Amino acid sequence: MGWIQDLFGLESPAVTESASTTSEVESLSWEVERLSERLASLQAEDVGWQRIAENYAALASRETLGSNAELCRIMSVVNPLMKRAKLIRQGYIFGQGVEVSVREIDGVDLAEIVSGFMDDESNRDAVFGPQARNRIEGNLFDDGNVFVAHYTNPLTGRVQVRPIPFPEVREIVTDPGDRYTPRFYKRTWTADGTERTAYYPALSYQPQSRVRRIDGHEVRWDAPVYHLAVNPVGEGASWGIGDGFAAIPWARAYKEFLEDWALLMKALARIAWILKDKNGKAQHMRAVAKDAADGQAGGFGYTGSGELEAPSKSGATLDAESGRPLAALVASAVGVTVTILTADPGTTGARAVAETLDQPMRLEMQARQAVHAEFYKASVGYALEQAAIAPRGPLRGRMIRDGDRLSVEFAGGERPTVDASFPDLEQVDVATLMGAVSTADELDLLPPLTKLRLVADALKLKDVADLIDEVTDNDGNFIPPSTQVGAAAGNAAANLLRQGGDPAEVL
Fold first, then answer.
1. pTM for the complete prediction?
2. N or C: more exposed end of the chain, with fewer CB within 10 A?
3. Per-residue pLDDT tens for 278-288?
């Protein structure tokens, strides 16, 4: 049978089935191998993502945040780029100051309470003064967190503000049903050689029923805390991380690059000319090495009798500009341009470019100013509330409770409105600003005091509040300076007439 099948090209069913099975096995084996490789690749990616997730979880822990903040504080002192980045941010955010005002309410002198609170010497030294403002912004750059306690006298309503160091705040206790709402801040510190622990309520947490202790530790209801946090991390974004943290590795890399470049330039400067020996003795080479190590800049290497030539300059270009991308990463991390950070427009830059505050940078600085503005509003608003709530406080109002929040209403159902404003970061010439104010005056759409504030901002006048006091009466109504001068002249003429003089001498 076999030779007949061979003659006619026929195959037995068993052979055909065996060949088909072998082909399928090979195909499936190849597919299994391909899928195995793909699975291994996916597993490798999963490991990478798992490590990233683990690193983020570790980064968001309180212990890691503390060590990172300490490192950032050190780098802000010893690293030139980090130090300048910190000063630049402080300058842009608070360099032109900040104005805090409160909308007047008939029959209630809120401005005097605000002025007394913010101008209090201890409060200025701790929070509201120029040095204190820069210190707080510097702490946000290093730590990412600032805690301000409001120590309150329950009898008089006087409020004194004091920052709590970041290392002392160990835990943030949030609402059990809302991780984004802080309730208490756990503080641990050492006083008189004894470790102490206390819980401080959040500034906006004023429940009707107040616990006296948590886990056996005192609750300081007389010192609620406002928490400023930037670059939030962790569950609920409770903690912040400093602006400078992301720049640390690149600032260190740029510093090391410049150190290596300076060392290389110093080494190259030791040899200005080379005397080559055509015979090339080994001892001569050793002598050159010794002379290069012991010699001064501008010397020459000698290898024996031969020809004099300059050292070869072929190969990679050695210049400090090669490290500019590292500086650019530092600038990107801290939110400023590289030209401003390095105080150098670069070989392809221009002075106008170096002095220009681009829109992304301006918006970032304005966003940070808004963070500080919210703090000023909350802090001053709390001081006004306590001045009305305290039995011997200078204000009188009606307490309004809304859940765990307590506020105050004055006559007519009005509540105090606090505003904090920063001068515009964009440079506009005075003529343009005054032209806009003049146009607004011609349209007669703005009240006089608003126009006065606009003119004061355009001319960058200081003590605007004192200026407003000079042109308003006891009821806060605007009195034009020309009217005041005319009234003063009329009074002087009348007095002179009563004394037998000539009123024309005055008029």
1. 0.71
2. N
3. 555 555 555 65
